[in-house]
Amino acid sequence: DAGVIQSPRHEVTEMGQEVTLRCKPISGHNSLFWYRQTMMRGLELLIYFNNNVPIDDSGMPEDRFSAKMPNASFSTLKIQPSEPRDSAVYFCASTGVAGNTIYFGEGSWLTVV
Amino acid sequence: AQTVTQSQPEMSVQEAETVTLSCTYDTSESNYYLFWYKQPPSRQMILVIRQEAYKQQNATENRFSVNFQKAAKSFSLKISDSQLGDTAMYFCAFMIGGTSYGKLTFGQGTILTVHP
Questions:
Q1: Which of B51, B55, B103, B110 to mutate to test the interface with A (most CBs of A within 10 A)?
Q2: Residue B99: half-sphere exposure toward Cβ, Cα within 13 Å
Q3: Closest Cα of chain A to B9: distance in Å?
Q4: What are the helix and strand counts (H, E) for chain B?
Q5: CB–CB of A30/A96 below 8 Å?
């Protein structure tokens, strides 16, 4: 079975540019999560969806960040405009109805210069 | 709020030996799960082992086992017969069951180096 698929794996962009990160959860999973990993803050939950509906976005750092899940097999995390402090590894993760095992994608390594 | 503490920033072990990574957590919840994730240099987050709080029996997965002490709120990971491929950052994580499925709280991580 395919795992959680994220793209791009690496992205380098200039400050002020729009960045879009993409995620395809595991087929059949109904919950999707976006996490961010930085040296300063470690791993933190940004937002999660259940059945394509955003449930908790309290971890989204500011209005420059937005996330969507238009269908069960696709989600995006957008940063506009990007800033150097947004440089981090962004993980997408998903889980099924049982919810007790969370599977992570390989991460998108973002560098904003 | 839940907290997870990994008090060992770095650990090292010789190949084929056994090493134990420590983790403590704090919660007032009764329905929860605990996890160990491995993060190699590739940065991928790989699930190593999971423990349900309601289970008294310690989880095991091949060379990996946990020592779950619920009263002490301790959840250590033992790696037996360490291999070079075990070199990675290891994260302990906590999750409340029920409506909070998937909301993981992570510890700071322990860097494990396995020496030949």
A1: B103
A2: 2
A3: 13
A4: 0, 12
A5: yes
User: Tokens representing B11?
Assistant: 């650990």
Does B95 sit within 8 Å of A106, measured CB to CB? no
Whether B102 and A103 lie within 8 Å, measured CB to CB? no
- As given in the structure block, the two tokens for residue A79 are 């940063």
Cα dist from B106 to A2, A19, A68, B14, B88, whole Å: 25, 26, 24, 27, 16
Q: Which residues of B touch A59 (CB under 8 A)?
A: none
- pLDDT tens-digit series, residues A17-36: 999 999 999 999 999 999 99
Q: What is the pLDDT of residues B33-51, one digit of tens each?
A: 999 999 999 889 999 999 9
